[in-house]
Amino acid sequence: MRAAVLKAPKSIELDHAYPEPPMGPADLKLKVDYTGICGSDLHVFAVEPPMMKMPVVLGHEFSAQVVEVGPETRGFEPGDRAVGLIYPSCGRCEYCVQGDFTLCDLRAVNFNQRNGSFAEFITVPARQLFLVPPGTPADEAALIEPASVAVHAIRRSRLSVGERVVVFGGGPLGLLIMKLAQLAGADRVALVEPVAGRRNLGRDYGADLVLDPADEIQGQINDATDGRGADIVFEVAGSGRAFAAAGKAVRKQGRMVVVAVYEGRDIPYNPNRFVADEVDLIHSYWAGAIDFRRAVNLVSSRKLDVRPLITGRVGLDQMQSAMDGLLADRGNHSKILVACS
Ligand SMILES: [Zn+2]
Ligand SMILES: [Zn+2]
After folding, report:
1. Which among 41, 89, 79, 85 has a CA at the least distance from the CA of 319?
2. Which of 59, 92, 135, 200 is the most exposed, fewest CB within 10 Å of its CB?
3. 127 alpha carbon, closest ligand
4. Ligand at shortest distance from the CA of 86
5. What is the pLDDT of residue 276?
6. CA of 228 to the centre of ligand 1 (A)
7. If you measure from the C-alpha of residue 222 to the centroid of ligand 2, how many angstroms do you get, rounded to a whole number?
8. Largest Cα–Cα distance in the chain?
9. 220 sits in which H/E element
10. 238 CA → ligand 2 middle, Å
């Protein structure tokens, strides 16, 4: 099969004869339609974190069609469209049993076991897959995985109607969180993003207020929150500066939800403000079964319209230039989709 193989840092080659992934009795085999390029793919491409051994086929934000069902699976038939979590989990630890398979005790062991979805075919345990209603376009369905991460972050935040929210970081995930916060009934959602192109996209996507962190933002956040500060801040930027600014923007007894990954770096953290003002510091990682189910429904009904986030499409053979382009200039792009078959 065809697969885009990351052979060494910053070097992707299209392999026309990559071995098809093994198929277990509890697995489905899927033909991949589209896979979105994620910030984490870009991170592995540029940095080679220790968890990933190269060569490797990345890709986890897939939409795909079922081509073969294992004998121990139920509920799927060839021709169905499915999305889900690509990295195999054990299915037996307490986290898997409660549907939080991204917290599986064996996740690190399983990370490199199968190819990711920048390939023609993948095999995935059926219990990690979710049916997509017929009629949902395959390109929009590829945004269900990142949407589920945003659903999870909103669920972790315990957002309730009328609250005021600030999102730090205007990448695809930040914008999905912004939009879902509005859908969940937030009174006002502000977006803080340093790159002009991403601020414009955030404005077009419906942000109530768009701020450049190069400006003095705390005064504007105070103005937008009756001088109190935000009820909830989401840190989706992954920088020490954004973390510090988010820690200032949240009100007393508010919640700060950290969704970003900090690329292996330590950042300054002084708990005194959080203690003195009783700020809840919450962390949110990936998504569980509940979040995937909700994201499937929200995206397929277009209550969460992901089309404005799709800013580019490339073929498997164009991945090297797409990744190089994203690294050089993230500002002009949000989600780039790779057509995989
Ligand atoms: Zn991702
Ligand atoms: Zn497990």
Report:
1. 41
2. 135
3. 2
4. 1
5. 98
6. 33
7. 43
8. 61
9. helix 217-224
10. 27
Which pLDDT belongs to residue 331? 79
Residues with a beta carbon under 5 angstroms from ion ligand 2: 89-90, 93, 96, 104
What local confidence, expressed as pLDDT, does residue 109 receive? Answer: 61
For the domain spanning 151-283, the CATH number is: 3.40.50.720
What is the whole-number distance in angstroms between the Cα of residue 257 and the centre of ligand 2? 25
CA 16 to chain CA mean position, Å: 28
Structural Rg of the chain based on CA atoms: 20
Taking the centre of ligand 2 as the mean of its atom positions, its distance from the CA of residue 103, in whole angstroms, is: 7
Ligand nearest to the CA of 102: 2
Tell me how far apart the alpha carbons of residues 149 and 230 are, in angstroms, rounded to a whole number: 22
> Using one digit for the tens of pLDDT, what is the confidence trace for 49-61?
777 788 999 999 9
Average pLDDT, rounded, for the chain: 95
Phi, psi of 209 (to 5 degrees): -155, 135
Q: Which of these, 302, 249, 248, lies nearest to 272 by C-alpha position?
A: 248
Counting ligands in written order, the one closest to the CA of 125 is 2
The residue extents of the domains of the chain are 3-143+306-339, 151-283
In sequence order, what E strands does the chain have?
3-8, 11-15, 27-36, 61-69, 81-84, 121-125, 129-132, 164-168, 188-192, 209-211, 230-235, 250-258, 280-283, 310-315, 335-339
Distance in Å, CA 61 to ligand 1 centroid: 6
User: Among 131, 196, 174, 152, which Cα is nearest to 309's?
Assistant: 174
For residues 332 and 65, give the distance between their C-alpha atoms in angstroms, rounded to a whole number: 30
User: Does CATH place domain 3-143+306-339 in 3.90.180.10?
Assistant: yes
Distance 204 CA to ligand 1 centre (A): 23
